[in-house]
């Protein structure tokens, strides 16, 4: 990893400073939200370890840590659905990252073949939640 | 909690079914992304346990689990920045939730006083990441 991330400093540095010092959790990960830069649609939620975040910054393509496979994941490497990162943002306490991306290939993102992973809304029917694909 | 969440079923039920069966992690939480329903701006990332999710569904106001305080958190209860939930979505494997909300009070969300927690973008300067407030 060629981009080092210093450990988080004081609360004021973390929240107002110009140093990227991600607060990786006990599992070594931060949460990442990925948004379509053109439409604003939320495409997916995934996780990044330090190496994935560094590679994302270095290459301007989205890299994640696959918790299910336990490996670094260059999104789109096999599917062609590479995500070019147009903007990368961090939240106040630096434990979450927001990527605004342009998706290559067929524009999909979800492993079910859909464009976004958030293809279902929750509605209450007689007080019971039900999922509706829309 | 009056809304029970059944344990996750098969992969096909989880991904294509109409049953809300959240996959709470080992810490009992799912990730929640909160978006301004009117502007599409990402306001915050937080977490929900089963009780917070049930209360959110029952009241149409956002409830989270505060990991720092270790308690249920009715967002806006003290600040007036209550989040009315207009839409609640779930992702393919049901371990993340997306809320589209309308914020009451002064419309803020972040504890720093800003509207969104994602008030900084990351830019590379001579290969080093720097945070820019914009």
Automatic annotation (TrEMBL), chains A, B:
Classification via Gene3D superfamilies: 4.10.80.70, Phosphoribosyl-AMP cyclohydrolase (3.10.20.810)
Subcellular compartments: Cytoplasm
Annotated residues for binding of Zn(2+): 92, 110, 117
Source organism, top-level taxon: Bacteria
Binding of Mg(2+), residues: 91, 93, 95
InterPro entries: PRA-CH, PRib_AMP_CycHydrolase_dom, PRib_AMP_CycHydrolase_sf
First-level EC class: hydrolase
Chief location of this protein within or outside the cell: cytoplasm
Residues that span the membrane, as ranges: none
Function: Catalyzes the hydrolysis of the adenine ring of phosphoribosyl-AMP.
PANTHER family with a match to the protein in the record: HISTIDINE BIOSYNTHESIS BIFUNCTIONAL PROTEIN, HISTIDINE BIOSYNTHESIS BIFUNCTIONAL PROTEIN HIS7
Family of this protein: Belongs to the PRA-CH family.
Protein name as it appears in the record: Phosphoribosyl-AMP cyclohydrolase
Lineage: Bacteria, Pseudomonadati, Pseudomonadota, Alphaproteobacteria, Hyphomicrobiales
The encoding gene: hisI
